[in-house]
User: Fold this.
Amino acid sequence: MARPSDVFLFNSHDLPRRPGEMKEYSFDITIPERVGIDVIAVLPGEDIHCEMRLESVSQGVLVSAEISAIADGECMRCLEPIELDINRHIQELYRYEPQKAHTKAERKRAREEEDDLDEDDDLMMDGDIINLETPIRDAIVLDLPINPLCALDCQGLCPGCGVKFSALAPDHAHELIDPRWAGLQGLSAPEDGGPA
Ligand SMILES: [Zn+2]
Ligand SMILES: [Zn+2]
Assistant:
């Protein structure tokens, strides 16, 4: 049984491991699980389209890709469904797995390379396999708004009846009187109507 994240694995076996070699690929990843944040995400069953270029470099494979997808969510103010086009560029270096060090000099170099590695950014190949999940997820999540809106000027819902303001008459209002204001009105009534 395949794990859900297996869809993000890309086999680079046809890219020769000679610095300067390059290949381009165009493909879709159909995701089995949502990718995004609570309020908006690319939904399960949707495709993430990738235009990807792989380049052999001395330490590994440099991945450059344009990814595009459509995220679905709802407006934070009026709850209307919204769709958002996502277009992101990603670029990551996937290092070859460290080779067994044989000589003293190789061991020294391996240690130095380890020190150079940025811990957060440490993407490794697994044989010929490149796992695109982390960069794709990060790129999509970073592109999503925390407060998605159907329109920047969305007026939201009328608190009185729950209908979208944009669907209501401009002078729409409710005769709702806050109990505290009702009390004040009672106090001021004699002044308004009574003798001076
Ligand atoms: Zn809205
Ligand atoms: Zn209303």
Notes: The two ends are 87 Å apart (CA to CA). DSSP finds three helices and nine strands in the chain. The chain has a mean pLDDT of 86. Strands lie at 9-11, 22-30, 35-37, 40-42, 47-56, 60-74, 81-95, 123-124, 129-131.
